[in-house]
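sry for the spam today, last one i promise. struct tokens for design, 339 residues
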């Protein structure tokens, strides 16, 4: 009989945790025991997994006994405190937060881009930022073919990136506005319904000349994942009133020419990428059609004549899947394949 792995999900009741559970099932991950962990608020709650009811337990330092793989998605401070406990218990941690991503001995992995980095882990493997994952998934084959010198990206990010409470805020605020009722915001600093916010808050900090944390993450993580610190990246990250699915306008400047046709061919041959590029017939990726899908979608591929070897692209993916839960489960699968 093939080996089964005990899996813990930290933050199981959250927007990402729920997708981790369904992704383990959908991909027929070789799980044995599945342990659902969350805060004391959720302890005792029953969640359906693979046709069985599992009881959510409160996350504690000794929660990881007998666990092989721990998937974390309960925020950076929880990971900082509890990931070392999981490692001490003998588990390998796949961490979905920004807590360890830029640390030297923590691999930052997108399995289609840098699977070889996984084997360098010392107990923790980091899952990159959602906007970065879908961008590098598309940029890697173009970089290999023509060496990317510079990237200018603008994101259009769904509210689910900010968790379950943000999903509820967009729904309730939209309803309140349509019914001309009062609404008391709890998550976003301004109205998000019928509006957009050019700031993705994360731990409330702004680094490096007023770039937001999300923008800085895209700029730094791209270099680490692609293993090339010479790529220049500048980003503007915007929250839009979409529930699920991040979109990105990406402009790249290459060292060598790649024609639009060749870019389409390279991308169509890339695992888990779908090219949807036929503007005359209204075919292009949109967030509503990527919900629940595992792939990264790309379209609107155009030559940019304003620089020597420029291309414009439009990239869309489900931020809770490729951007979070799916990428984490794929990392766990690679880990097993390499062990
Ligand atoms: O710190 P970061 O990295 O910046 O991340 C911040 C947030 O971003 C989400 C995630 O939110 C995280 O909290 N996130 C992280 N990485 C992400 C990624 N890659 C990401 N989002 C997208 N992509 P979330 O809402 O999706 O998930 C939160 C989960 O974390 C659990 N949690 C929180 N504090 C915890 C904890 N688990 C253990 N110990 C702690 N101290 C959280 O579980 C959830 O699973 P929960 O038990 O707190 O509650 C979930 C249920 O309870 C309700 N609820 C929430 N707050 C309250 C509440 N009910 C009453 N009062 C409250 N104050 C929720 O409705 C939910 O049903
Ligand atoms: O760094 O709020 O993984 O949309 C993912 C969700 C950053 C914030 C991360 C959001 C977070 C992002």
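last one done:
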């Amino acid at each position: 009989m093939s080996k089964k792995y005990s899996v813990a999900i930290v933050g199981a009741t959250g927007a990402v945790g729920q997708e981790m559970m369904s992704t383990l099932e959908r991909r027929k991950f070789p799980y044995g025991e599945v342990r659902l962990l969350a805060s004391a608020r959720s302890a005792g709650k029953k969640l359906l997994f693979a046709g069985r009811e599992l009881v959510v337990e409160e996350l504690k330092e000794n929660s990881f006994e007998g666990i092989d793989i721990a998937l974390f998605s309960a925020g950076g401070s929880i990971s900082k405190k509890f990931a070392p406990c999981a490692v001490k218990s003998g588990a390998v941690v796949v961490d979905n937060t920004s807590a360890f991503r830029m640390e030297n001995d923590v691999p930052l992995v997108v399995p289609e881009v840098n699977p070889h980095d996984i084997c360098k882990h010392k107990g923790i493997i980091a899952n990159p930022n959602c906007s970065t994952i879908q961008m590098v998934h598309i940029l890697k084959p173009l970089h290999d073919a023509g060496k990317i010198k510079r990237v200018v990206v603008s994101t259009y990010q769904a509210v689910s990136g900010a968790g379950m409470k943000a999903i509820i805020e967009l729904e309730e605020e939209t309803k309140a506005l349509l019914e001309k009722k009062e609404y008391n915001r709890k998550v976003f600093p301004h109205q998000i319904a019928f509006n957009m916010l050019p700031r993705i808050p994360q731990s409330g900090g702004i680094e490096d000349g007023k770039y937001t944390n999300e923008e800085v993450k895209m700029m730094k993580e791209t270099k680490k994942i692609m293993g090339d610190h010479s790529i220049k990246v500048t980003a503007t990250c915007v929250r839009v009133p979409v529930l699920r699915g991040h979109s990105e306008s990406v402009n790249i400047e290459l060292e060598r020419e790649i024609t639009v046709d060749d870019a389409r061919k390279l991308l169509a041959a890339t695992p888990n990428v779908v090219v949807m590029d036929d503007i005359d017939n209204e075919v292009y990726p949109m967030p509503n059609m990527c919900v629940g899908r595992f792939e990264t979608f790309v379209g609107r591929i155009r030559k940019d004549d304003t620089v020597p070897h420029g291309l414009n692209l439009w990239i869309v993916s489900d931020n809770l899947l490729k951007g979070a839960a799916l990428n984490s489960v794929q990392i766990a699968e690679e880990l097993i394949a390499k062990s």
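The two ends are 16 Å apart (CA to CA). ok im logging off now
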